[in-house]
C-alpha cells in the first residue's frame, strides 16, 4: 500500500502539461532546443541526460519559472507564464539543492509555504507532520535544516512539495543524496502521486530511479528524445 500523503479532492487537472517547441536561451547558452512533450494526468516521467544537458532548465520551464525564448508551456488550456501563477495552478517544484530555509526547522520549512497559500495553521501543521512521516523524518521535524544531513534535507524538500498536494510535481534530482532504501521510499511516494492523478516529472542521473517511472525521456545538449 502506498503511504501517499492525503489529497484534496476538490481540485483536478483538466488536461496535460504541454511543452510546445520550447527553446530556452540562458545568456549565450541554448539550454533547451525545440522541446515538445505532453504529459497526461496520472503519468510519472523520468528525464535523464548528462550534466549540463538541460534537465533543470526543463524542470524550471515546466514549472513556469523560466520564460521560454520561444514556444510555450501549457497546463490544460492555460499557458504557464510565471512561477506564481503556476504555483497557484498546483505546480510544485522540488529544486536541485533543495532550496530550504536553513535557519528554520524541517517542519517550519513545510508549514510556511502552506500558510502562504492560505492553508489554516492547524491544517498546515497536520499536513507537514503527515508529509514528514511519509518521507521517514518524523523524528527530525524540529531540527534546524542546518542540523540535517544532505539526504535528510532532500527528504524535507520532497515533503514540502507533497504537503502542497500538487497537481503537477516536478522533482529535480530528488534522490541524488539518498541510500538505496530511502531512494525507493521517495520514488514510491512519487509513484503514489501519479497513481492518485498528478503529473509527476523527475529529472535524474540515477538509472535505477528512472527505471521506476512509466516513461523516460533523454536530454542531450538541450534536445529531448523519448527513451521508452
Ligand atoms: N544561469 C545560467 N546562465 C547561463 N547558462 C546557464 C545558466 N544555468 C545553466 N546554464 C547552462 O545551461 C545548460 C543546461 O543547464 P542545466 O542546469 O539545465 O543542466 P542539467 O542537465 O540540469 O545539469 P546537471 O545534471 O549538472 O544538474 C548548461 O550548459 C549550463 O551550463
What does this structure look like?
- The model has no long low-confidence stretch (mean pLDDT about 95).
- The protein has helices at about 55-60, 85-90, 105-115, 120-135, 150-165, 180-195, 205-210; strands at about 15-25, 30-40, 45-50, 70-75, 80, 90-95, 170, 200-205, 215-220, 225.
- The chain is built from seven helices and ten strands.
- β1 (about 15-25) and β2 (about 30-40) form a beta hairpin.
- Strands 6-7-8-3-9-10 form a six-stranded mixed sheet, sandwiched between helices. It has a four-stranded antiparallel sheet with strand order 2-1-4-5, with helices on one face.
- The longest helix has 16 residues, at about 180-195.
- α4 (about 120-135) crosses α5.
- It is about 30% helix and about 25% strand.
- The protein is globular.
- The chain is of the alpha/beta class and about 230 residues long.
- It has a single domain (about 40-65, about 80-225), classed as 3-Layer(aba) Sandwich (Rossmann fold), CATH 3.40.50.
- Bound molecules: adenosine-5'-triphosphate (ATP).
- Adenosine-5'-triphosphate binds near residues 26, 31, 51, 55 and 57.
Amino acid at each position: 500500500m502506498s503511504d501517499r500523503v492525503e489529497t484534496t479532492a476538490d481540485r483536478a487537472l483538466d488536461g496535460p502539461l504541454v511543452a510546445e517547441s520550447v527553446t530556452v536561451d540562458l545568456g549565450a547558452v541554448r539550454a533547451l532546443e525545440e522541446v515538445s512533450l505532453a504529459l497526461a494526468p496520472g503519468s510519472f516521467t523520468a528525464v535523464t541526460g548528462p550534466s549540463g544537458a538541460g534537465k533543470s532548465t526543463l524542470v524550471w520551464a515546466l514549472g513556469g519559472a523560466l520564460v521560454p525564448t520561444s514556444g510555450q508551456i501549457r497546463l490544460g488550456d492555460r499557458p504557464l507564464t510565471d512561477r506564481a501563477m503556476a504555483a497557484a495552478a498546483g505546480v510544485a517544484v522540488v529544486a536541485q539543492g533543495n532550496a530550504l530555509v536553513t535557519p528554520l526547522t524541517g517542519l517550519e520549512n513545510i508549514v510556511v509555504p502552506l500558510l502562504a497559500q492560505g492553508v489554516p495553521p492547524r491544517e498546515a501543521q497536520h499536513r507537514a507532520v503527515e508529509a514528514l512521516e511519509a518521507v521517514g523524518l518524523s523524528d527530525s521535524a524540529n531540527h534546524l535544516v542546518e542540523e540535517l544531513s544532505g539526504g535528510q534535507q532532500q527528504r524535507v524538500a520532497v515533503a514540502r512539495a507533497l504537503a502542497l498536494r500538487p497537481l503537477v510535481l516536478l522533482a529535480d534530482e530528488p534522490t541524488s543524496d539518498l541510500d538505496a532504501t530511502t531512494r525507493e521510499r521517495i520514488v514510491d511516494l512519487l509513484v503514489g502521486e501519479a497513481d492518485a492523478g498528478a503529473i509527476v516529472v523527475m529529472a535524474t542521473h540515477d538509472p535505477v530511479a528512472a527505471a521506476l517511472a512509466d516513461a523516460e525521456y533523454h536530454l542531450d545538449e538541450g534536445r529531448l528524445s523519448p527513451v521508452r
